[in-house]
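Lab channel / #folding
Pinned by the channel admin:
"Please post every new chain as: sequence first, then the structure tokens as a reply. Keep commentary short and put observations after the output so the thread stays searchable."

First post following the new format, from NK:
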Amino acid sequence: MDASFSLGRLFLVTLALISFIQVASAQLQVDIKLKRTLYISYEPILITVSLTNLSGNPLPLSDADGNHWFGFQIETLDGRPIAPRSLGYTNEPLVLQSGQKLSRTVNLTPLFPIGEFGGYRIRAAIYAATLKRYFNSPPLNIEITDGRPIFQKTVGVPEGMPGSGETRNITVLTHRLPNSTQLYVRIENAKGGTVFCTHRLGRLVSYGTPEILLDKKNQIHILQNVAPKAFLYSHIGLNGEVLGRKTYSQIVKRPILRESPDGTIQVIGAQEIDPTAEAAKPPSPSLSDRPVPLPDSATDAPADEKRPKHILSE
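Reply from TO:
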């Protein structure tokens, strides 16, 4: 009789505890979203955090009690926590009104040392000071890997340019995915180990080898075949600056890069495409013949970049 009564009380206490946790968790809903699950080392990892106030009352969010109200918890897939590069940051306080949803996109790459190859598990962690508790998002997994170098060169930074007298390692990489190959450029300080950029330049057709030239300032110029008769030209500075990006349509033969007498690099054998004019045109029946929009690290990735689930501020 006593044992049955004790078990009954334990069951009721457990139900009450579960109900309390569900109610508390429902006060602030935290979700995260990634456009891809596969990244190469040091490229921008853009994550969107969404907050929804379900408490029924305005919810103030501010740094308090030694806690940052907006942050992340990152660990390797075997449970090793990854500390942020710095804790010396502040978040602007705000008040989330009842029922209001707020989204914020953050680049994790400069915030956490997650350049090593392997899998990582990511959660957003939101601290509500008035409730004295954290609200965490469901975890998402990403995988960090690297591409295959197809061009590597160590060059000096000319006088008069930022970083003059230093040297830079320039690497162009391809990354093979199930249904596409992506092209990247990475620029690093040859001695200090600083990575200035890892830009994803976009798709590279399997039969097209990119053309790569350095100009008299050692800046890199890349012309890649992104679709039948469509080419993308990128001009990248020695500190990772994107100095130019243009799309071209092939005229007759495959276009090439050529250095002019004044030292500038030109695209020969192709016609530049005006993005404004292209946007105004009616849709073409054949997607394969249309120029590919200029990509960047924040654009949606092809579906084949997704990986199975068993792989893991600005």
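NK: The longest strand covers residues 118-128.
TO: also worth noting, The radius of gyration is 25 Å.
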